[in-house]
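Tokens in:
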């Protein structure tokens, strides 16, 4: 079974949306995976996703309202195979936090979809609804590519 963690700053916008989109795409492809999402900071721990994230995920028929924010912990680097950061800041923070015996590969989520033309999933929190829509579009492209990667060897 594959194990993936999606990480953004506060775990209320990008990473819960990523978890849901990847779950949706992996399940449709019949790929078993354990997924989770987390944030680098503890400001939103225990809170549900941003209402705008919930609304835009719902447009896909995906319900993320039951997710609750949590902070990345050192054990995540051993629990997951791959940890996908939403932006370079999160990537740097994860790399600095990784223990010497980490088994997880840490990478930007958009390295999965280099043809998309944008390598970071920009935080939509302070922007308009358009940013939340772009987050979903970007994560769909990345999830599709991960499914292709995982099914190529079948």
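Residues out:
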């Amino acid at each position: 079974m594959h194990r993936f963690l999606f990480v953004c700053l506060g775990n209320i916008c990008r990473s819960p949306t990523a978890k849901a989109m990847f779950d949706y795409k992996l399940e449709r492809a019949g790929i078993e995976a354990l997924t989770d999402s987390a944030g680098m900071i503890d400001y939103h721990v225990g809170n549900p996703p941003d209402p705008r994230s919930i609304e835009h995920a719902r447009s896909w028929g995906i319900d993320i309202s039951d997710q609750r924010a949590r902070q990345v912990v050192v054990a995540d680097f051993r629990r997951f195979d791959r940890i996908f950061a939403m932006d370079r800041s999160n990537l740097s923070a994860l790399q600095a936090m990784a223990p010497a015996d980490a088994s997880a590969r840490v990478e930007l989520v958009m390295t999965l979809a280099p043809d998309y033309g944008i390598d970071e999933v920009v935080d939509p929190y302070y922007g308009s609804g358009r940013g939340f829509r772009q987050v979903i579009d970007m994560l769909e492209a990345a999830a599709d590519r991960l499914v292709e990667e995982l099914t190529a060897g079948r």
